[in-house]
Amino acid sequence: MPTIDRFAVMLDGEFVKKVLHKRLKHFPTAAEVMGEVARIFGVPELASLTLYRVFYYTAEPLSGTAINPLDGSKVDFSKTAAFSDNTKLIDTLDNQPDVAVRRGVLAHQGWEIGRSAAKALLRKQKTAISAGDLQPKIQQKGVDMRIGLDIASLALKRLVGTVVVVTGDSDMVPAMKLARR
Q: How far apart are the first and last CA of the chain?
């Protein structure tokens, strides 16, 4: 059986954004994400291989509105900085050569006490919560499944011989084991 001399890079967008944000101290730009991709390309084991594609997995930014249960104020997610930053990042990455953006969905699943308010309550610096202490609980759906399916598909169709997965999640380990076999 001939060796497949192509590789694919799969980026879990939320993980990449979190790591870059921590390192850079700001929301990452598409150029900074592509800088990480370039760093991956520089790995010696990939030097003799040809790029098949870079897959960037994320969810469309949450739009719509929600009502804060404590004070009845309305939050329009499409008017937030997170919506704007994420839309710009996704659109810019989607227009990069050899990059495919795979989209899951975000779901608003109620409200939760923010980290700083929870710490203040535990330290007894606060005795009650206010509307500002609540933050929307937003969950990403379908992204890990898409990564796993793409890993399996690329392997089974023999489109690549090497898959580089950048994530902090172990959900796709079964798909990676299938690809390795």
A: 14
Of the listed ranges 26-35, 88-97, 172-181, the one predicted with least confidence: 172-181
Q: Does 1 score more than 60 pLDDT?
A: no
> 167, 18 in Cβ contact below 8 A?
no
Distance CA 147, CA 149 (A): 6
**Four-residue CA torsion sign, 111, 19, 170, 47:** positive
DSSP codes of every residue in the chain: -PPP-EEEEEEEHHHHHHHHHHHHSSPPPHHHHHHHHHHHHTSGGGTTSEEEEEEEEEEPPP-SEEE-TTT--EEEGGGSHHHHHHHHHHHHHHTSTTEEEEEEEEEEEEEEE-HHHHHHHHTTS-SS--GGGEEEEEEEESHHHHHHHHHHHHHHTT--SEEEEE-S--TTHHHHHHHH-
* Beta-bridge partner residues of 9: 54, 164
- The stretch 94-121 carries a mean pLDDT of 92
How far apart CA 161 and CA 168 sit, in angstroms, is 22
